[in-house]
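Look at a sample.

——
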Amino acid sequence: MNINKFNLIRKTYKQVMPDIILSTDYGIDPYFMDWIGIFTPIEKVAWDIIRYYGIPVYPQFPVLNYFIDFANPNYKIGIELDGKDFHDKDKDIIRDNKLCDSGWRIFRISGSEMMRQREVGTTEWRMNTGDGVLSAINIFYFKNEQYVYNNYMQDIYAALDKHRLIDFSIYKHRRAHE
């Protein structure tokens, strides 16, 4: 993505941010930009899954000097998709530490996991596919369905734990401005 697109994204978020912060848990309509023209192939797959589950995240969300692939600023949850050509673990650890110091929790899904398919509902699916990890994030942070939460808690926690580079409290999940 070129510098002009980054500047446009920052400018647009500056305009819509008050509405995002004041919105309900599921936020405002995220289609205030043509994201499809900006997404990488991996991000397009993730976006389809995110929209299927109704996960309240915004694409290319600016935080500090970074853009988080998908993020919810009210809960300070970020999802990074790591394609093999753009992933540098040492730099990602530094970046995630800076974001964590600002209260963010960043979960990382590899490009191969994003494209991998497994039988839905299995432990292997939740641990090793982008679909499964996104499902875990959705249930843990954005759903209040206690029976679902309790029935799958071990798998959900394990998937979240596996998909973070740095240690942070997974359990901290109140709205950021409360």
